[in-house]
Amino acid sequence: MITTTTPTIEGHTIDTYLGIVTGEAIIGANIVKDFFAGIRDIVGGRSASYESVLREAQQDAMRDIQQRAMALGANAIVGIDLDYETLNGSMLMVTISGTAVRVV
After folding, report:
1. Burial of 10 (0-12, 13-18, 19+ CB in 10 A)
2. Contact 97/20 with Cβ under 8 angstroms?
């Protein structure tokens, strides 16, 4: 499945717009990751553990949106938008939305 943040796909023509699709993933971060992230806040640097959790959530949400688009008969999703949020300070939420289309 072709996925893109752009409204068109170079070299393809959108034949049918099938509707807006969304994907969501909420993943909890544990106390160990919180502890090491807190240390990173003090000394600086990137938090590899949180980056890994965010990547996992993004991949889960992307699989979700692709499955919903395929159920509509789409072979592409255009205009994808990603959003990241924290819930209750310990849950990470990724939402993805886009337009399911059939391209030729």
Report:
1. exposed
2. yes
